[in-house]
Amino acid sequence: MMADTPGKDALRMRTLTVLGSTGSIGTNTLDVVRRNSHLYRVYALAAGNNSERLAAQIAEFRPAVAVVATSDCLSRLTEYLDASGLPRRDWPELVCGPEALVRIAGAPEIDTVISAIVGVAGLPATYEAILRGKRVGLANKEVLVSAGCLVMQAVREHGAELVPVDSEHNGAHQCLRAGNRQAVSKLILTASGGPFRNTPREALPFVTPGEALNHPTWKMGSRITIDSATLMNKGFEVIEACWLFDFPPSQVDVVIHPQSSVHAMIEYTDGSVLAQICATDMRMPIQYALTYPERAEAPVPKIDWASARQWEFLPPDFVKFPLLKLAYQCQEAGGSATCTLNAADEIAVEAFLQGRIGYLAIAEVVEETLARIPSRTPRSVGDILDVDRESRASARERVTARAAGTVTV
Ligand SMILES: NC(=O)c1ccc[n+]([C@@H]2O[C@H](COP(=O)([O-])OP(=O)(O)OC[C@H]3O[C@@H](n4cnc5c(N)ncnc54)[C@H](OP(=O)(O)O)[C@@H]3O)[C@@H](O)[C@H]2O)c1
Asked: What is the pTM of this model?
């Protein structure tokens, strides 16, 4: 038997907390669990506002604890559970708020956390899981974009295992297992190019949220989908890759690959390139994060090599997509610049989705916010959350100024 394909018995049982269970990554995670219920036990599920979906997940997966964002969500969750017919004696403990997220992420009952809350709201709980030495399947990219230095230091000090779920980093993680890290000259992340890859720059001021949400290859939450349309998402991934694999930004390249089948490539010093290829389905990296260092049967159909296919690779357009370049610059600058980058982008994306600003103004709001918030060295998660708050407030002002037509750059 080959080294990487041990018997099924080598796969260990895992007890999970799923942060963001009602989202795109969360529901895919629960599908992986559903397909391998002999391998996984769900200890806790955490959602934001979608009490209806959470109630259905509780009825199916029977966690010990369920968390929602607010007391209103908790009341609605109770109503949905009543309506579901699940006897009260089978209900989990029901709680709400950020402290509850931290508690279920660090609970002694679990060994693994899937971190799939969107935004910096997922940071304190993910950090707690790391402090408790858990395995963290990390989907939430804002954790490393906002607090990479602190998070990676905590991983080293507390023996936590950070296994990336983002498909590109998951691909890189797999490629890096093949050779000596010292012999790697480049990490190459692929990008689909988003829905506006072929849209002329002159047409970009007029694109709508609906068009931007129409991602060509991935079905994801709305924030990451808009970030994919501006290539901000790829910029975040460059930052994430620098932290995860200890590369300077100059050693991380982006290549446009519209088919999204090759997820990442590693170039070794001798010019050999290894690529990680698999079905375009997030259940692949999620399952890997749960089974690593072992492998389990594919959760989705494998690539069919009998049917013809064509794969393209193109350089990114840094002029048309300025947020990608800005991400490199923020990571080079260090300090809290990447935290501001993420916070400002989140506000700008929200404003774009609400129709308050146009597509091109997303990058402008982010640039203006970065120019107004001085970078500093955060020493704690509290410091990060302070920078995040300050940056959001500044970005909101920039949005308001634009919406009122009184922009001064
Ligand atoms: N989707 C992908 O394919 C993909 C790929 C790579 C990386 N990621 C990253 O993974 C993360 C999740 O992405 P997604 O696409 O799954 O997003 P999504 O579909 O929008 O789901 C976000 C999840 O976070 C929950 N949530 C939001 N605010 C919360 C709060 N304050 N407290 C508790 N829960 C909260 C939401 O709950 P409710 O829905 O109940 O409000 C939902 O369960 C993001 O950081 C994204 O960048 C996603």
From this structure: 0.95
